[in-house]
Amino acid sequence: MTLNLASKRAVVTGSTSGIGFAIARGLAEAGAAVVINGRNNERLVEATERLRSEISNADVTGVAADLSGAAGAASIIERVPEADILVNNVGIFMPKNFFEIPDEEWEEYFQVNVMSGVRLSRHYGRQMIAKGWGRILFNASITGGFMPGEMAHYGATKAALLGLSRTLAETLAGTGVTVNSFIPGPTFTEKAAAFLKKRSEQEGEDEQDVFQQDLPTSLLRRFIRPEEVANFVVFLASEQASAITGAGLRVDGGIVRSLL
Predict the structure, then answer these.
(1) Global pTM value
(2) Residue 36 CB-density burial (10 A; 0-12 exposed, 13-18 middle, 19+ buried)
(3) In this prediction, what percent of the chain has a pLDDT beyond 90?
């Protein structure tokens, strides 16, 4: 099966590193013109140059924007008025005890993790309807239904994305625009690497120890690689996934014990 996105333009938020970068890379490899996004302009330039160096003839544009408010989404829309594929990947997370999370932090998490997707989907979704084709995707994360106390604010926003994704899919029924959530499990991003290094230095534990003690339901018993998530997202963005919409689809290594 060949996934050809040569005629498509994709916007991927939060894509200077980790899962977002891997998704941008996968879409570029499939031929899409890709717009990557991050808050830090230096990191954005580095990520853009890296994609161009790794993928011959890659059409990559970087847009620096802080998506914690409406102005950030507006700046992306101003630079990139039209898109065929929107991957709402941006998300913030910092472990904190539920009783220590102030209102301001809850608000920030909803602005970045949820409202950024609302604002961009509202703009690009209208255009996709007019063209009769489009893909809107949300990174919902396994934490949306698997929430230790230190992830309450993050998990709540990811659960909200599952509802938003399904509602938007219902709204766009019959238009040729599909809307889905992809749900990654524990993924070996830069943050995960730093966590594992710290755990190794402090407690002498390796990856297998982490999964045996903290994530025993994982069937992979290892971190998922960002490109493994990206492969699935590129498929969902393709013509071959035209019958898949309104779904929350896990790429979690079997961590959730469920038949569906």
Answers:
(1) 0.95
(2) buried
(3) 78
